[in-house]
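This section describes the prediction task in plain terms. A model, or a person checking by hand, is given the sequence of a single protein chain and must write out its three-dimensional structure as a string of tokens. No templates, partner chains or ligands are provided. The sample shown here is typical of the held-out split.
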Amino acid sequence: MKKITKIFIIATSLLATKAMACDTPASVCFKPGNGSFNLINKNQPVAVVFGDSADASVQRVAKSFAEDLARVSGNNANMATDITTVKNSVVLIGVIGQNKLIDGLIAADKLTVSDIEGQWEGYKIAVVENPWPNVKQALVIAGADRRGAIFGAYDISAQMGVSPWYWFADVPTTQQGQVYVTAGSRQDKPVVRYRGIFINDEDPALGGWAKNKFGGVNAQMYEHVFELILRLKGNYIWPAMWGKSFHTDDPKNTLIADKMGMVIGTSHHEPMTRAHKEWHKSDTDPTIGGAWNYESNSENLAKFWRGGIERMMSKGAGKRYESLVTVGMRGDGDEPMSEGTATELLENIVNAQREIIADVTQKPANETPQVWALYKEVQDYYDKGMTVPDDVTLLFADDNWGQIRRLPTKDLDRKGGYGVYYHFDYVGLPRNYKWTNTIQVEKVWQQMNLAFERGARDLWVVNVGDIKPVEYPIDFFLKMAWNPQAMTPKVLANYADNWAEQTFGKNLAKDIASLVNRYSKYAARRKPELINKDTYSIGSANDLVLDGGEFYQHIKKWQALERDMEAVKAKLSPAQYSAFYQLIEYPIASLSNLYDLYFSAAWNHELSFYHDQRANHFRKRVEDAWDKDQALVDKYHTINNGKWYGMMNQVHMNYVIWNDPTKQSMPPVMQVYGGRNRIDVEFAPIKSDEKRLVLDASAYSKTVNNAGITWTAIANLGQGDSAMLALPQGKPATTVADEIRLEYKFTRKEAANLKVSLQLSPSLDTIGRDGMRIGLSYDDGPVQILNFNLLPSGGVTPNPEEQSWIAAVTNNNHSVDTVFENVAKGEHTLKVWRLDDNVILEQLVLEQLPLTETDDNSFFTSLMNLFN
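The expected answer:
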């Protein structure tokens, strides 16, 4: 019975994005059922009740839930704190042990909460019959704590059609005249303890937008941000920090965070709740300042850090504002603290910080949640043996491009546990990417699933830049963080469909999901900041037609995607268009246009060299694309009465170094006068290369699974149709003797040397053993062990060993290859062997090479071919 209950909870926790099946207990249904609760009857919602002494966050979510009822029904819901003032049916929202009505139902055996009581952020939703003399039915949303109550309420909101993105992406709510909640009860709780986002690199986009709309990055803005996070069942944030101080820029920030139930943290280089800006702001405290150097300025730094903890404790009555305190130290302004790995110094810093925490809170330091971020060079301290107390969460990081660098290999039961800091936005090598959504959620899933299986289960935080336009991957990241085990490959494969249905309705879901999946694949191929006229080959020109080359193949895909997007747009209702423009149209149209701009610039330069007047056609295309880019931005800034003015102000063209240009500029183009006067433009079809065969990884002829490991196709992962992954992840290395392999049939028309390249999605050695391995063989021949080791660059001047990593993240792909000599004609079997974990196979490329005189039996083979 316990096993069934666990499966039920896992199965339902990800379905709150839309109405569940009407036979699922305590879930929204739009038709009546036996014992169901009538939440909205003939467009009139029931009353919402909460205790008059409820925590401010519970009072706020009760009001928010009532507003959601109004969005769905079209009429306001009454709110009350006194049960005697309402009749018939009510919704009751509260916290176990803090709400007299809920506690009374428990005492009367009308509500059972033993399965969630005392559980972090757990909640129970139950339909209760005859709870009080004047009430026939109650929908009880009981939280084990205040956020449990919040998440339970927003669970029902999402099911009845209120998108978490109703404000932050203008997703409309479909009105319903009748809404029911099925009889019975269900419960849920998160698996990952802290789940949140980091607003970063927020200027000029989010910062400029917030200044225009709210007067700054202030409490008015954060109220919307916090509500979004909570509706997505997140609980944690690193606030915007470049030139900003969350607690001092607007003192209401701290208050609204507490009022809404948010946990506030600070980024990896802002210890002890202090913002980077505060250290450099002289009027904060004239007695504090100087060098950000603990060896020379420890006294002032200690004062500074103490002030942060004192502020955290300023809630009163010995209570603290809920925080996860960052400990440790990096250099000033996101730089390394020292040239070497000063392990003893950093250990002393952490010890001093914990002494401050204990002294200010008047409690042992281990009673205040803390995190040590192993970001960039700080990971070296961990790798070289530095330890922190068992209660401190160790936060591993990715390489800033979506590949996790290190994961735990021991001490998995440490009290503070482990977490992951991930990136959807970054400033640094090989180039900033800040403009648009380039994230494939399937890669996010693969990396975070690996992290979960390896024990990183206490903190997941993702750098989201400006929040927009990475709405879709944010939605995914926080949904997965709630219960990583529930995000199975099957659920992942259907995620775009479910998201599109929740956002745009069932009729458009399949079409929009297709747009999202194709966009994600194309956009992830290479960050737009890394694209210019020289990125892809354009073939050659002649008097008749142009060979568009690889660039043209990308252009055709983008143009087809944009046409399909326009076809879907024609089916929208007016109410859906604002959300569609933000989430679908702008990303597709703007990135498609950017490809066309650089493609046209490439041909303008190529044809100008030959004084070919067709260059003028491409000059005009560049100019038109330049104008279209601005028109798309202008439309974004004026849609919905200018609500999002300034949000798309990020420069995204003509990068020449890793950092973004100071302003947008059009690629240089040339005009041809005289010369060849052929002006019509036509592209030749691409000829197939019979000597090159590309196989999608999922096009296998056979899988061999052993040792509890199964090869699994992950749809839409990578640049092919699907990528192959050995699941479950997190398992130890295997050997050829374990017989875990994929097999692929291929046929040669003639004997030849054969180069085989395994195209892989980038991934890193998370164990620290100097590389990763995969095996390759054909027919019954020996297995060749192929090794690779991508080493992330730590600075703006990468060393030669880091160049392969730069190439891999630039192309979002890398390969390992070998040559099999003298492969006879006929049918063969290529075999790929699982050796190490975290290797993602996307495609196999087989290229025929000529036999040479040095090949064994080459003369004999050639002679035999004549007779065959």
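For orientation: The longest strand covers residues 123-132.
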